[in-house]
Every structure is written in structure tokens, then in C-alpha cells.
Amino acid sequence: MKPETAAKKLGILLESAPEDFREGVVTRDELNALLADPPEWLQVLRREGPHPRTVVAAKLGISNSGLARGGITEPLTTAEIKALLVAPPQWLVQERATQAAVRAEKIRVAERDAERTARQAGGGGGGAGV
After folding, report:
1. Is the Cα torsion angle 12, 13, 16, 19 positive or negative in sign?
2. Can you state the angle between helices 78-86 and 40-48, rounded to 10 degrees?
3. Run means of pLDDT, 10 residues per run, the chain, 130 residues
4. Could you tell me which of 6, 15, 62, 14 has the C-alpha nearest to residue 34?
């Protein structure tokens, strides 16, 4: 697979990976080996960053769109993310509240759908009655 794909699967920023990783091809076996027993460079990247947008958004508890609305366009390090969480700017507080509301709505809809399915599966009379 392409290095870009492997980096995405590993949750790292490709530009921060070693040159031999960026310029080579990664086989499934190599990817599985990196996942099972990450080398030091991968451990450091995962621990300290810089992190790709999806990882930054997840660590902040917001969406990728929320990052854009907050003006975050560059990768962030773990230290930068922690600093935002310690003293969150207003945009981050708002985006986290929005994300919490979205999660709550998803749960509500899933519970409603499960209840409907249970009611339908439970019978409910009205058969043909031969």
C-alpha cells in the first residue's frame, strides 16, 4: 500500500515519519508488524505528535469540521493539544458542546429504533387467523 494509506492506518502524520517509510511501499505484513510491535519512532510519533487532523479532533473531542471552524489548520503536538484542553478557548468549549449534543442525539435515535424493532419483533396480534 502507499505510505499515505499506511500512515493513516497507523494514525500518524506522514511528513513526520522516517524517509524510508515515506518513500517505500508498505505491505500488509509490514503494517501488521508495525501495529503489533511499533518501533521507537512510531511510539514517539503516536505519543508526542505532530498528529494528523483526525487524531487532533479525537483528542479534543470534536469533529474535523470543528477544527476548521476553530481555525486549526496545522497538525498539533500532544503538548499543544493538552494546552488547549487545560485552558480551552471559547470555540473549543462550543465545539465540544456541539459534539456532545450530536452524540446524545445519535444515542436517542438508536434507542428509539431499537424500541421500534423490539415492538415489531414482539408480535402484536393482527394476524390472518385462518
Report:
1. positive
2. 20
3. 95 94 93 96 96 96 95 96 97 96 95 94 60
4. 6
The C-alpha atoms of residue 88 and residue 32 are separated, in whole angstroms, by 37
Q: How far apart are CA 67 and CA 51, in angstroms?
A: 13
Cα–Cα distance, 57 to 118 (Å, whole number): 35
Q: Hey, how many other C-beta atoms are within 10 angstroms of the C-beta on 77?
A: 14
**Distance separating alpha carbons of residues 21 and 39, to the nearest angstrom:** 12
pTM: 0.79
Q: Using CB atoms within 10 A of its CB, is residue 14 exposed (0-12), middle (13-18) or buried (19+)?
A: middle
Largest CA distance in the chain: 75
Q: For residue 64, count CB atoms less than 10 angstroms from its CB and return exposed for 0-12, middle for 13-18, buried for 19 or more.
A: middle
- In this prediction, residue 115 carries a pLDDT of 94
Distance between CA 70 and CA 118 in Å, rounded? 42
